[in-house]
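Go through this pair.

…
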Amino acid sequence: MTSKKVHLYYTNDLHSHFENWPKVAGYIKDRKRIHDYHHDHYLLLDLGDHADKVHPITEGTSGKGNVHLLNELKYDYATIGNNEGITFSKQELEELYTDANFQVIVSNLFHSDGARPAWAVPYAIDEKDGVKVGLIGITIPYEQFYSLLGWSIQSPWEMLQKVVDEVRSKADVVVLMSHMGLGNDEQIATDIEGIDVIIGSHTHHVLKHGMNVNGTLITQAGKNGNYVGEVVLNYDTEQCKLVEAEAYAISVRDHKEDQATKEQLDRLGANAQNLLDEVVCRLEQPLEAEWFRRSVLPDELSAALREWCNADIGMINSGMLLDGLSEGKVSREDLHRICPHPVNPCKVILKGSELREIVAYAMSDELVHLTFKGLGFRGEVMGIMAFDGLEVKTVVMDDGLHHVTEILHNGHQLSPEKEYSVATADMFTFGKFYPQMKHARKKYYLPEMLRDLLAFRLENRY
């Protein structure tokens, strides 16, 4: 048997956790040196959500710092995740990969007129030593959010089989670079014929040796730069078939950091700092942000939401603000520091009876003290809910817990059947916090994030 090996190294869901990137870089550079010495065939891939505006470097450089890091390690291919796709404005995404030295592959993203973006291709065929590896990229189709930004995102189930068939006719091995999540990857392996390997992301699973579904190897390597993934393909050039595919997720926790990468991050941080130094306003007195009692800054954010979304009511959990603001100048960096979440505003339509249920739960000790991570929230605890346009009265009863006793809108009790428009964080329309919001009529506002609304409020008020 005449076989040749192809090594595919990949990162997924870094989410701008740059504190881990020097170890990732060190590991990748070590592996590259070994493969270069032996003249091996290898590729380096990123599966998306590398850029996350939670970090000042990504925020300050609009993601170009992330692209620079990928360039420095000589990545070959990348696809986009939802963080690149829907937390950047359309213009920012159009410009994100201008200086990329790697090919961006995403087959299901289009402009609203149906044209494919110039910076992306649906697939690529990479050939070395007589082995052709076909790479296809797809990203999760959050249709409503993409359409608000001027994009058209297609469901992979509508188009993927056709793309796979085309790539299958040109390549020896077909690899799907998927930012769809493990459950969807398993379904794709079941429904779509002709895929040898699915390198996955989005759901942050650690599949240390992958899994086999319907003859397709599926793999994924965690999140935040804790692991580097590897897939080893063994291709028989005489029989013209893939005889073996193995997957590994390698922890880099104890790997030596790459000093050049650390210095590069320092330079990117300094560059981002210059961009974030823009002064938003000057405060004559501090604006406090408390998590467990009413305070000024959460009230200002709820008012900003109400105004921005032209709603009857604004509401936001105080835990969304990690700190208050001191007197003196307030910069973009300050607002990013206290409100780093990639969370957008949203307006939902709720009946008075539904709103009453939501307010009661939002003010309960259970939810106020809930520690939570996810859905874009990067805080510590949920905190008490701040309202604008709504007066909420609570008392501590014999059980020692807070209970809502009265809710007034414009001085009147909520009418059970009347509809109210409520401006809040989009994360409350996902997950299990408030089923009433999840199923309500709603409108999302992109690409602005909550800190942008706070800047808008402070610029015009202070």
Residues 110 and 117 are 6 Å apart (CA to CA). The chain is about 30% helix and 30% strand. The chain has two domains: 3-272, 279-461.
